[in-house]
Structures are given as C-alpha cells and as structure tokens.
Amino acid sequence: MPSFLDFEAPVAELEGKIAELRAIAAGDKTVSIAEEVKSLEKKAAKSLSDLYQNLDPWQKAQVARHPERPHATDYIGSLITEFTPMAGDRKFAEDFAVIGGLGRFRGEPVMVIGQEKGNDTASRLKRNFGMARPEGYRKAVRLMELAERFGLPVITLVDTAGAYPGIDAEERGQAEAIARATDCCLGLGVPLVSVIIGEGGSGGAIAIATANTVLMLEHAIYSVISPEGAASILWRDAARAKDAAAAMKITAQDLKKLGIIDEIISEPLGGAHRGRADVIAATGEALSRTLKAYRNVSGDVLRTQRREKFLAIGRSL
Question: For the chain, how many structural domains are there in total?
Fold first, then answer.
C-alpha cells in the first residue's frame, strides 16, 4: 500500500479494509470476498477521484512533496540512455544535490541536469534533501557551457525546496552562484527545456529553470518561497501555510494562467507516485514534442525568445 497523506484518510480507510479482507481470504480459502472487495475498490477509486478533482494549493504542495514521488534519478533512468554522470564544479567540490551528465534522449544526444532529493534516509542526507550549495550551481553552469560548446540541448529536472541556506553555503557565495547560473541559462545558444517534477523552490529552482520552455507536472508546485516560509514572514505563524499557499498561486494551473509555465503534464489519478511509469512516459512525450520544435533554431533566436519570455511575465497583470 502507498503512503497516504493526511487528506487522503477516507481512501486509506477503504484500502485498509480491502487489505484486511484479502488477508482473511488468504488464511481461509473457503471465504469468498470477491464481491465485497470489488465494491470497496469502487468506493476507494471514487473517493480518490473526488479528492483529486478538488485539491487546494496546500494539498497540492503535500502531493508534490510525497516521499514516493518519482525523482530526477527515476526520470533519467527511464528516459535517458547511455547516461554518463559528470561530477564536480572544478572550483571546490562535488554537490550530490545536483546530478548531471551526457546521455541520449530518444537517440539524440543531450545534457541532463537534475535536482535529486533522495529516496531513503541515507540518500536524502547524501543529497542534502535536494538543496544545493554553490558548488551545485557552479557544476550546473559548467555542464550547460559544455552543452553549448558541443551544440547539445539541455534538459533540467527541477525538484528542490530551495537552495541550501547554511552558513557554509553563504560563505562560498550562494547568491552569486545562483545569479551566475540564471545568467548562464539566459545566454545559452542551445535549447533549454525545464520540467518542474516536484517542488520548484525560489532561486534554487530558477537557477536551472530559466528556460525556453518550462513544463510542469499537474500536482507540482513552483514558488518564490515555501508556504511555511511565507506564513512565518507574513503572519509570524508557520501554521498558516495553507493560507500562504492559496495566496501565492503556486499550482501549475495558476502558473499556466499567469504565463510563468508553458505546459502542464497530466499525472495519474492520485498523483505521480501512484503511476510512476505513466507520468515518466508522459513527461518523455512532452519533452520530445518540445525539443522537436527547437530543431534548427539559431542561438540568437533562442536567446531572444528566452529573454522575451521572462521579461513578459507580469506585463498583462
């Protein structure tokens, strides 16, 4: 059974009953539970459907952070062949929160850069929960510049609560590293396509998401600060994160209306963690369609398009 979020309690109860009935049937082959299980499965599916048709922004934030949601390594493992990881920023160290390297996407060579949160305690600590230090952003710049040198499209997979705010990161120039990464994105003469696969948090996200096209999963979030952080600043109360989430317009649907993202990728019912293969396949289709549109487009046109895209944000408000 998957891990359930707090608002999924009605579904969890029904699926728990189904599991109990199956356990009883497994111990006593004379017991017939087929009809009852079928009825409960229908109720569970309807309950899940009703919940996910009416998610509020705070609930979407919880789905975006689900521990079983597919991460960058899952997308790379499924969509990228011949992937060769590249490490280090050539200035200080390797940052395991940012992964990147060369590979092939549907036969075409690409550079892939992703933020990885990890999927268990050990890997989360190693990846610093997806929060990069300056060396992570400097590595991203190194890889983007390498891609431009060889004329390769760049795909970035965004999933971070934000850049790491620790003292050591600040001492090594966190803000400068983010600014230079953003500037590098804007100046690339090759196509840059970003996918917000989970959380797109603040400058930590925009540093690798200042792209020609920004794709976003249906239940992902993208914001200048976390709902908890905004609530702490505005109301001195992190418990008002739900109010902050609603006010900040962090959902894919709101951001599409505002022109901040370009396309929403549908997720399976119940979120990406309930249909990992399906959502990764859908992401692959969206990436393929987007990259084809940029074939034979000159570097000057790509730079201009990217610049105008971001300058236009907010003009119609």
Answer: 2
0.85 cut: is pTM over it?
yes
Is residue 203 situated within a structural domain? yes
Q: Identify the domain boundary among 14, 30, 54.
A: 54
The phi and psi torsions of 260 (rounded to 5 degrees) equal -85, -35
Question: What is the tens place of the pLDDT at every residue in 252-291?
Answer: 999 999 999 999 999 999 999 999 999 999 999 999 999 9
- Round to whole Å and give the CA distance between 251 and 220: 7
Q: Using one digit for the tens of pLDDT, what is the confidence trace for 55-78?
A: 999 999 999 999 999 999 999 999
- Looking up tokens 């999924």 gives 8
Q: Are both 40 and 148 inside the same structural domain? A: no
| Shared domain check, 85 and 44 | no
Question: Does 99 share its domain with 26?
Answer: no
Same-domain pairing of 84 and 147: yes
156: which residues sit within 8 A by CB, 6+ positions away?
Answer: 112, 113, 114, 140, 192, 193, 194, 195, 208, 209, 211
Of 67, 59, 57, the closest CA to residue 11 belongs to: 59
293, containing H or E segment = helix 276-293
What pLDDT, on the 0 to 100 scale, is given for residue 2?
Answer: 67
For residues 89 and 119, the answer to whether their CB atoms sit within 8 Å is: no
Q: Is residue 215 scored above 70 in pLDDT?
A: yes
CB 93 within 8 A of CB 253: no
Angle of the 276-293 helix axis to the 72-79 helix axis, nearest 10? 70
What is the CATH number for 198?
Answer: 3.90.226.10
Note the pLDDT of residue 72: 96
Has residue 70 been placed in a domain?
Answer: yes
Please tell me the total number of residues recorded for the chain in this structure.
Answer: 317
**Domain extent for 275:** 62-311
